[in-house]
Amino acid sequence: MKTTKQTEYASSDVAQTQDTENGIQKNNGAERAFTELERSVYAALETYANVHRGSGHNSLVSSQLYEHARGVVLEYMGLNKDKYIVIFSSPKRTSELISLLKPGSYQSITSREVGLPLGITAIAVEKKALPKGSPTECGGGTARLVAAGWIIWNTGPDKFEAGTPPIVNVIAFGKALLLLKRYGKDIFKKLPNNDLGITELLYKDDMEQYSGVELMEHLRKTLIGRGFIVPTLEGEKPFVNLDNSASTPTFQPIWNTFRQSLRLPERRKQDVVNEVKAVCSELLGAPLEKYDIIFTKNTTESINLVSESLGRSTDKDTEPAVLISLLEHSSNDLPWRMASKKSLVRLPVDSEGFVNLVELENSLREYNQDHKHGKKRIKIVALSGASNVLGTCNDIEKISPIVHKYGAKLLVDGAQVVAHKKVEMEKDEIDFLAFSAHKVYAPFGTGVLIARKGLLNHKADELKQIQSSGEENIGGVAALGKALVLLRRIGMDVVHEEEQALTRLALEGLSKVPHLKIFGIKDPNSSQFDKKIGVIVFETKDILHNKLAEEMFQKGGIGVRYGCHCSHLLIKHLLDINPVLEQVQRVVLTVSPKTQLPGVVRVSLGVENTKEDIDVLVDVLNRLTSQAKVKPNGDEKKAIAEAETEFQKELEEFSQTAVHRVYAYAE
């Protein structure tokens, strides 16, 4: 499979730079092993996307790379793949899962044992020994179907890997195990440290002289995987990533920080942690003297920590309730169900996806002032900063005073907002903020929880375990810091303005596509448009959502997301799926788990995207919707079927080539 010149030479350029870096010569096994590891991770980043949950070439390849790592673990441990499955976990969640397993039913290995600070534990569990019932940590990806009163949990590893997993770190871990077999089990422990200072690690790069729009434009040119050529039914084309809400790719300066941080001496790692906390504090307006900043594995784990804290309330006079909205992602819904039992209050939203502030206040007054619901009190209002489906941004500045007026605390799920719009925690009196680095151009397995001091109800030793679990992934922490430094230099107001310009262009183009129905804010001239990020969802009556997404990558090389987007209740509301049909879905999915449910296609923009990407999107959708009206004759159907069969072969070859590039050894 052909690639662009950048793709052909980028890895070798990186290797050449590393060969001479700090005068170190690659003349021993440890250096050769680490260079090979870097080459493989870089190759994985060239086709990076969220796993299992998107359409397009990158999602397909990343899913195969991720699943291949499970097989590598089992092979390394000498275990039968028919008898065992592998679950990838953070150090904290590992202890919780193992406590539910019978002795002798599992084996585990950590990245720390391997000699790499990736924050990964691989647990190989006998399939028959997997715990039944609800997972200890829940959220995105753990549930197959969600309704207001019931949940169908996923099966296999997905049930125990809540939220987006540390995909790149897992792939790196898998490749490292292969390298151990080749070079020896202690090879990475023999790797010499590279003691960079904080300034060089986080603040130095080739674009220091730029800021604002100019920096954004130069940064785009360093996108890893930029212009990667992929097969389509219409020949080879550059891949167009329009799935930034699921996960974001990364850029060369962030990758450099990640790879360099893996070789830092222990004494330097705490300096990195402290500096990245300071960067988070400044960018998000959360003074360190007033807020605790805790690194986790992702947004889901961060929210689960707050829900667990709430569940430990010792107040005997009240029962905790949590108020969320219909907008919420599973990661800001399912954890609260576990903490507050049946005391989950859900606010409706209007047709554009906004919460009614009068209804918000009425609910808080009923529970916390008028006591109309017995001992139940709304302790936390947990709302998304921006919807991952409609792109609408809650007006936190107006919501916060209402929440605090009635004695509740405010948690903002910032997964979709931190990379796209300015957040000011102290100014808006946000008590908790959760977000993920993989949605902020640093896809190396780090999440963040920022909490007002004194609010988390965890014991000192538990907090220490939580903190050490997240900080073990020093590469992810450092990469997040670099990503936030770059965003700060661009300016969040600039990011928002540039992405709004693209969103406006996309809405104008999509509004002219025949038979396409857009949900949420459709008019760029709407007074609410400024409260929208670059997320657009749509459907067409002529093509099912999964088929439309499939055809977008088959014919246009476009990667998007389709389905329910882990926001099942909102999607059912948008598509008018009534309670009767909802119960039918429940029965059908129980009998046939692979059944495709109703959903929508989502386009989501990021710093990498340009006007040319929007032009490709609109052109492809125009052609697909127009062709859907034309019914092919017998010969045409046969020709289409043959072309699709041939394309599937090309796609399989493309995927296998990508997997080989990562896991095979460079000779």
From TrEMBL:
It catalyses: (sulfur carrier)-H + L-cysteine = (sulfur carrier)-SH + L-alanine. It holds the Pfam family Aminotran_5. Its cofactor is pyridoxal 5'-phosphate. It comes from the Bacteria. Residues 117-190, 267-617 form the Aminotransferase class V domain. One of its GO terms (molecular function) is transaminase activity. Keywords: Aminotransferase, Pyridoxal phosphate, Transferase. Belongs to the class-V pyridoxal-phosphate-dependent aminotransferase family. Csd subfamily. This is Aminotransferase class V-fold PLP-dependent enzyme.
